[in-house]
Each structure stands twice: as structure tokens, then as C-alpha cells.
Write a structure and sequence with these properties.
With 283 residues, this protein is an alpha+beta fold. It is built from nine helices and eleven strands.
Length: 283
């Protein structure tokens, strides 16, 4: 059995929707998968992050495959374009690719169990749900179960990502968050996150207000001051902008004013991926 798994990048939080909102982006990692006899394992990786990942059972894609219950031999060739440690869901994409591969190898269709397995790796479901299902997702948990719903983004939603050379660790930036926030900030986040769903699906003109955050970006600002500068400069000029995931990438919507200094950032305009992870047979 040979097949190709193509999985999109994702952006999470979208400003106000901390650990709740995600969106799939038209940037993809591809994993060529083949079953093998006698428990043989082979892993090859090209592209983004290839120099720093293991090539054994501890590789994230392999771990995700095993989490689905597939224990047989495995040959993987990974071709990565999603930058690592930039807030574009590279780890969630790897996990989703592995889950999709494991489900295919065991003859199962992707379902809510696929999200559960993937989200357990991350500890939250926003990136994983976006890469699994595409479009815009609202994610939450009920006890130990992870849930999500997918909604269609408005055709006028035009994301652009500003990717710096700097890397950022999700674990490190989460460590900057306080255990508690003021009630007024929590209420602000609830209203703006609800508005973000409407803005992303029906009225992108409201994205500037919808992406205003008080829960996480200011607390994490010491980790990526240039990211915060660019976001503030864009927002002052009326461009909706926020940190993508745990940063340091900036995600913005619409055209970028030429007067904003983007030195040190690689700018890419991306489509919203609407399909999520895809599996295509190669034989």
C-alpha cells in the first residue's frame, strides 16, 4: 500500500479566540507513506526542519501513526514546507499527517476519533482540527474529549503571513501567561471571539475589532518584540493583524501598507485551505 498525505498549515487563536479558533492555510507538508513487512521502519525528511528531527520511532509522524493502532512496518518520506517553531501549526500538521496515514493503513475513515488522537498530542484542538478539516474551526473540550465544528470562511478573507527568521517555542510562550486574568479581559475575549466567527464567515470588515486580544499577546510580547511592533503598526493603519498561534509569525488580512517596516519578515499571501488533510493513492 502506497499513498500520499498532504496536510495544510494552520493559524490558531486569530487574536481573540485563544485555544478556540483556528484556520487552515494553503501551505502544505506532504508525506509519502508505504506499508512494509517485518516491522521495517524507514523515515526520510526533506525541507523545513529536516536537520533537527529524529528518523526513528520518536519522529512525530511515526508516533501519530502508532497512536492509531497501526503497528506494522512503515516507510515515510516527508517533504516539509511549513516552517518549524513559527506559529503555523507544523507540529499539528505532522500529527495530523500521521493520524491520517494510520487510519488509511488500518482501513478507517477519518472521524471524531482522529481529532481526539491528534488533539491529545497538542493539548488543544484548534490547530489539529484546522489541519484535519480545513476552513475555519471552533474548538473546545468536554472533559477529556476534544470537539470542533468547521465553518466556511467568507471568500473575501485574504490571509497574509509575515514569517520571521526567529523561532519560538509554544512551551516557552505558554509559560509567560498568567494563571488568572481580569474578569473584564475575559469578557472582552468572549465578545471578540464570537465576533471573529461572524467576521471570518460573513463580514471581514469587522476583523480589525474581532482580532483585538487581551488574553495572551501582551503577556507573550517579550518573546517576540518585533512581531508585536509589526502588529501594532499594522493595526494603527487599520489592517487586522495578530500573532499566529504561539508566534512569532504575524497573520494579517488585506493589503499591507508600504510604510510599515517589514524588514526581517518573509511575506506570503496564502489561500484559506478548505479541504483539510488529503490522502491520495500512489499505486
Amino acid at each position: 500500500m502506497r499513498f500520499l498525505v498532504s496536510v495544510p498549515a494552520s493559524t490558531a487563536n486569530l487574536g481573540s479566540g485563544f485555544d478556540a479558533l483556528g484556520m487552515a492555510l494553503g501551505m502544505y507538508d506532504d508525506v509519502e507513506v508505504a506499508s512494509a513487512e517485518d516491522g521495517h521502519l524507514s523515515v526520510a525528511v526533506d525541507g523545513a526542519g529536516s536537520a533537527g528531527v529524529p528518523l526513528d520511532e520518536t519522529h512525530l509522524v511515526v508516533r501519530a501513526v502508532r497512536a492509531t493502532g497501526y503497528t506494522g512496518g512503515l516507510v515515510l518520506r516527508c517533504r516539509n514546507t511549513i516552517p518549524h517553531a513559527r506559529g503555523l501549526g507544523s507540529s499539528a500538521a505532522a500529527v495530523v499527517a500521521g493520524v491520517a496515514a494510520g487510519f488509511t493503513l488500518t482501513g478507517r475513515e477519518l472521524d471524531t476519533d482522529a481529532l481526539q488522537i491528534a488533539a491529545e498530542f497538542e493539548g488543544h484542538a484548534d490547530n489539529a482540527a484546522a489541519s484535519l478539516f480545513g476552513g475555519v474551526v471552533v474548538a473546545w473540550s468536554e472533559g477529556e474529549r476534544y470537539r470542533s465544528v468547521r465553518v466556511d470562511p467568507d471568500a473575501r478573507v485574504r490571509p497574509v503571513v509575515l514569517i520571521p527568521e526567529q523561532e519560538s517555542s509554544t512551551k516557552t510562550t505558554r509559560g509567560l501567561l498568567p494563571a488568572e486574568v481580569p474578569h473584564a479581559d475575559a469578557a472582552h475575549a468572549a465578545g471578540r471571539a464570537a465576533l471573529a466567527v461572524h467576521a471570518l464567515t460573513s463580514d471581514p470588515s469587522l476583523l480589525l475589532a474581532a482580532t483585538e486580544d487581551r488574553l495572551h499577546q501582551d503577556y507573550r510580547a517579550p518573546a517576540w518584540p518585533e512581531t508585536v511592533r509589526v502588529i501594532n503598526d499594522l493595526r494603527k493603519l487599520g489592517v487586522p493583524a495578530c500573532v499566529s498561534g504561539a508566534g512569532p509569525t504575524v497573520i494579517a488580512f488585506g493589503d499591507l501598507p508600504p510604510e510599515v517596516d517589514l524588514h526581517g519578515f518573509h511575506v506570503r499571501r496564502l489561500d484559506v485551505d478548505r479541504a483539510g488533510v488529503r490522502v491520495r493513492p500512489l499505486d
